[in-house]
Design a protein that fits this description.
globular; disordered N terminus; about 625 residues; 2 strands
Length: about 625
């Protein structure tokens, strides 16, 4: 990283608390998401141990409901989403040739809001009990739940969701406005396209959830009756609000995984992605159709055959652009010089696994059949084949692929393959038997079951599979520790990459590109390699580079929201007012203090280029 007289560089903890560098914020998202992933995984293993045999008493029914609620909530909102944002932060500005995101300060605010929201939610374990109404928080379960568990759920996710919404807006503006010269929309890498569509989905989906949380908070804190049928309310309002957000959320999660798989399959097949234009339009179409299918979660509530039929057709239609992607990945590999590195193994494992989840999704799209599958373990199996077999395998692939860019180290390939096989085999052992459990009538969200119902062996196998998945995750962390040694230092382009993130030295300079690159085609770096250049052609001469200053205000602002959240949960209006006061003060300070950033001077940039550091 360059340092100079015009800028005092912070060090240690203060550097991380005040950073607005997209690369460091990506690492913060990854570490936080990884931490919550471990918590969510532990909650899942505790549930599977409870279900390993009939009439088990490992945990109580009350504890099981809390584990179930927190597992789903943690994995969706606090593990999957931040890890996606980790890759978006670390990679998207590099892929489009930008020096940072459009609003670095807002980027930091988004991270700290997410982090403090997640911490607030998980503190419920130590303050009287976690939420117990399921991760969907259906009314009247959520409105009548005793204690403060659901209050922690509402306020924690409200704060974290505000951070996610800020991040989504930031990436929309970044991708629209900050692409390098020549980087047209139809030259953008597929991961950037997926991030773009995902950010659009966040922009339109998260406000619905925000409104729902406000209604639920007012119901619990102030005694309103939006969802109380006895007082003129309607419980279906919550279901509609939640799933109008909830189904686009599935694509907010899975589209970035599609983008990751597209990058990896192309790189390790040594081929341009087959049908690039079709893949782009399929991504956009999936995002569009994602808002038109939410009622397939509600086929059994009695909306009638017309409504059910409309949403059934829309649900079936979304399989078409998804199928385009599957075939295009296969055709990309066809005839390619495939290298089965760890990222490629995860990518190849992703494809058939996600297809299985998609097939059961089409089965669930038929209302008459859904009446039989609904609220059974068949739905649990389907959902996890999409989210774990799809999203999590994609995130593992992305981690192994971009780890050299993010951490300047290469993960051990042998340990990576152990990670893959343990996790992949464990996943199928866990969730494939759950299809049969559902078809045999085992309902979801039950903490035990009677013996003699032919459910014992499948549940036993499912628990063993969960333990194998846990073992695979442990191998990943061993790999990370092993890779920290100096002998695993990465080269600038360890995979012979095709896109711009591999076009700069290791470690990545604070300003990313010493000279903004000129993009001359799809797979911009590959175009330059085939032209014999070996590096990007600059689009500008060397000059001073303007950079933003770090700030502690995003951290303090988010801490204020955290304090205010406690105030609302416990009806302590002094704490609530004090916390919101901190938020307003930090906003005021940000508005009135002139902060024009700093410049990396031309001489330093030239010195970095000459020394191979830029």
């Amino acid at each position: 990283m360059s340092t100079h007289a015009s800028h005092t560089k912070k060090s240690g903890l203060m550097d991380w608390l005040t950073t607005v560098d997209h690369k460091k914020i990506g690492i913060l998202y990854l570490l936080s998401g990884g931490f919550f992933f471990l918590i969510g995984g532990l909650e899942a293993i505790l549930m599977r141990i409870q279900l390993i045999k009939p009439e088990n008493d490992f945990v109580s029914a009350e504890m099981f409901n809390q584990l179930l609620t927190m597992h789903g909530t943690t994995m969706i909102f606090l593990a999957a989403m931040p890890i996606i944002f980790a890759f978006m932060n670390a990679i998207v500005p590099l892929q489009i040739g930008a020096r940072d995101v459009a609003f670095p300060y807002v980027n930091a605010v988004g991270f700290w809001l997410f982090f403090f929201g997640g911490v607030l939610l998980n503190l419920s374990w130590f303050l009287g009990g976690a939420p117990d109404a399921g991760w969907t928080a259906y009314a009247p379960l959520s409105t009548s739940s005793e204690g403060h568990g659901v209050d922690f759920y509402v306020l924690g996710l409200q704060i974290a969701g505000a951070g996610t919404l800020a991040g989504g807006i930031n990436f929309l503006v970044t991708i629209i406005n900050m692409r390098a010269p020549g980087m047209t929309f139809m030259r953008m890498p597929l991961f950037t396209w997926a991030s773009f569509v995902t950010s659009g989905l966040i922009l339109f989906a998260f406000p619905a959830l925000t409104v729902g949380f406000f209604l639920l908070m007012f119901e619990r804190v102030f005694g309103t009756h939006f969802f109380n049928a006895d007082m003129g309310g309607n419980v279906l309002i919550w279901e509609h609000i939640f799933w109008i957000f909830g189904h686009p959320e599935v694509y907010i999660l899975i589209l970035p995984a599609f983008g990751i798989i597209s990058e990896i399959v192309s790189t390790f097949s040594k081929k341009r992605l087959f049908g690039y234009s079709a893949m782009v339009f399929a991504t956009v179409l999936i995002g569009f159709l994602g808002f038109m299918v939410w009622v397939h979660h509600m086929f059994t509530v009695g909306l009638g055959p017309v409504a059910n039929s409309i949403f059934a057709v829309a649900t079936m239609a979304i399989a078409i652009p998804t199928g385009v992607k599957i075939f295009n990945w296969i055709f990309t590999m066809w005839g390619g010089k495939i290298s089965f590195t760890t990222p490629m193994l995860f990518a190849v494992g992703f494809i058939p696994t996600f297809v299985m989840g998609g097939v059961t999704g089409v089965m669930l799209s038929v209302p008459a059949a859904d009446y039989q599958y609904h609220d059974s373990y068949f739905v649990v199996a389907h959902f996890h084949y999409v989210i774990v077999g799809g999203l999590v395998l994609g995130l593992f692939a992305g981690l192994y692929y971009w780890y050299p860019r993010m951490f300047n180290r290469v993960l051990n390939d042998t340990l990576g393959k152990w990670n893959f096989w343990l996790f992949f085999i464990g996943f199928h052992l866990t969730f494939f038997p759950q299809h049969w459990l559902g078809l045999m009538g085992m309902p979801r969200r039950v903490f035990t079951y009677m013996s003699g119902q032919q459910l014992d062996s499948s549940n036993f196998v499912s628990t063993i599979g969960a333990l194998l998945m846990g073992a695979g995750t442990v191998v990943l962390f061993i790999n990370i520790i092993v890779s920290a040694s100096k002998k695993n230092i990465a080269s600038a382009d360890p995979w012979d990459g095709r896109t711009l993130e591999w076009a700069m030295p290791v470690p990545t300079p604070e300003y990313n590109f010493a000279q903004t690159p000129l993009v001359r085609g799809l797979d911009a770096l590959y175009v330059e390699k085939t032209a014999g250049n070996g590096k990007m052609t600059p689009a500008e001469p060397v000059g001073d580079i303007h950079m933003p200053n770090g700030s502690i205000l995003p951290f303090i602002m988010s801490l204020g929201m955290f304090i205010a959240g406690f105030g609302f949960i416990y009806a302590n209006w002094y704490a609530a007012g004090g916390g919101m006061g901190i938020v307003l003060i930090t906003m005021f300070l940000r508005s009135v203090i002139d902060d024009h950033g700093y410049h990396v001077h031309k001489e330093e940039v030239e010195a970095d280029i000459k020394g191979g550091r830029a």
